[in-house]
Amino acid sequence: MSFLTQLRQLVAQRGTTPTRLADVVGIARPNLTTTLAGKHDTRGSTLEAIAGALDAQWVLVPKEHLAAVQQVLEGRDAGPDRAAKAAVDLLLEKKP
């Protein structure tokens, strides 16, 4: 998933509008729109400001970790089930 795709998805998830986001970042709405469309090269500082306004962080991911990060971003992380009861809790439940 491309950076711009992730950025557009985050804008939608946060429920903000391009106008509101542009105001927070301090750029003109047409400039934000062309940035989100990928129609011009955008400075890193602008991307950093957009990410900050969306309560996110712009990071580089080494290729050897990219597959794991993509799984997390897609909600397919195979991490621990934090809602599952611990073994000790299950053991204590069995006691009369």
Automatic annotation (TrEMBL):
Domain HTH cro/C1-type positions: 7-56
- InterPro entries registered for this protein in UniProt: Cro/C1-type_HTH, Lambda_DNA-bd_dom_sf
Where does the source fall among the domains of life?
Answer: Bacteria
Recorded protein name is Helix-turn-helix transcriptional regulator
